[in-house]
# Entry
Amino acid sequence: MKKSTIKKLESYRRDYIGNVYHELKTPIFNIQGYVLTLLDGGLEDPSINREYLLRTEKSINRLIEIIEDLESISRLESDVVTLNLGKFNIFTLVKEVIELLVVKAKKRKNRIFFDDMNNTQIFVYADREKIHQVLSNLIDNAVKYGKQKDGETRISFLDMGENILVEITDNGMGVERKYIHRLFERFYRTDEGRSRDPNGTGLGLSIVKHIIEAHNQSINIRSTFGEGTTITFTLKKAD
Ligand SMILES: Nc1ncnc2c1ncn2[C@@H]1O[C@H](COP(=O)(O)OP(=O)(O)O)[C@@H](O)[C@H]1O
Ligand SMILES: [Mg+2]
# Structure
């Protein structure tokens, strides 16, 4: 291996460990603070004991989320991704994912539009569970980073013959042109993204990209800062 390649790999690994450390640090130190307060007499104080336990639980859930994302990523990057391919109706899957996100969307005053064209069926050949993960990530982003009051998230399909194009559009904050190419990087988040959702990990889109590429399909982002974002990806149709 060339010296410069080794150097690059080393710095890449350092960045990676630095990022993991940075993400784990906050919830761990928070838990430490809550537990110390409880041990310091908080446990006997009914006005805070429950609250501090609830906060502890929240931070633990956050740690679990980060660890699950890291696990997904390292499995996807280890090249031993085994896809569990099968035929399924993509319309039904989209409906399932929307149902799981509809409460969150309502809380954020965001409306999800999905025209199921009178229950049309389009069958694709893919790993259903992994495409579930892809759709959840993308629709969750559209809701989170969507417009804050009259947010609209739209999901639509385009028949391309052999493939089907799935499109997820929001009318939210968008991404500055110079950062768009970085969105698929692990841990990468824009400043606006960070301030909108301090709990994100920045791993979602890199997981999504890995999954789509493992299917030999493609994914694409278009975005206009302050106006909105559209993400499209393709899936192979099944007959
Ligand atoms: N629909 C979107 N609109 C605007 N920015 C987005 C959108 N989706 C993703 N981003 C930007 O890309 C970053 C990475 O997204 P992702 O990998 O899903 O991580 P997370 O959801 O944890 O922030 C986000 O933090 C945000 O800055
Ligand atoms: Mg995300």
Notes: The chain is about 50% helix and 20% strand. The chain has two domains: 3-77, 85-236. The CA atoms of residues 91 and 117 lie 9 Å apart. The two ends are 46 Å apart (CA to CA).
